[in-house]
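Hi there, hope your week has been kind to you so far. Thanks so much in advance, here it is.
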Amino acid sequence: MTPDEFRRNGYRLVDWVADYLDGVEQRRVSPDVVPGDIRALLPAHAPTGPEPFSQVLADVDDIVLRGLTHWQHPAFFAYFPANTSHSSILAELLTAGLGVNGMNWVTSPACTELETLMLDWMRELLDLPERFDSSGDGGGVIQGSASEATLVAILSARWRATGGRVNADGDTTSLVGYCTDQAHSSIVKGMRIAGIGAQRLRIIDHDESFAMRPDALLRAVEDDVAAGLTPFFVCSTHGTTSSMAFDPTSEIS
């Protein structure tokens, strides 16, 4: 695709997306299809040559859209709020156009520093304690999903609690974590993937607002320490999926 073709097709695609979002309310929220319907409309084998952009967009109109669940539909209430915005779509275009990798500072300094600053902003907006800032021992890294972020947090806590030893000997038998029954299922999944196991995740009582009770957490931690275990991770949730509960992070930490 030449620069001129990119401009021409890009303008066309922006118009297409704008029209889609403007008219999404007129569509069915969920598609009237059964498993295999969409695949049957697609080639069985990969194409041997390119197709014009107009044909690709026509396939989206004629095939892909008929099999979509329209998450941006105003009547879509499943899972979690995932509405996009015109601003975020333009941001995605800019990100794809720059195509940088921010895996560490040297690979793209501006990308890394912007990410670090934005997570500090997030800390501020959530009213988390200042020790969560990147200026100290805190800070964060944007991950691709909630499950991925949870796993990274558990692995980081596992490393810190063992002084890095677990990365050498793999011994997680003394580690124990904590959350309420309102926490996301990715917590249990992360404990399993990290080799610690779901049985080492203590479910802490919550109050009438479904928020974790710090006194119950303290008792559980004291009991585990007395039993020779090592508390290493507490999931303090801000807006649980099931009840929108906010755990008292300042008291917990």
In short: The beta strands are 175-179, 201-203, 230-234. DSSP finds ten helices and three strands in the chain. The mean pLDDT is 93. The radius of gyration is 23 Å.
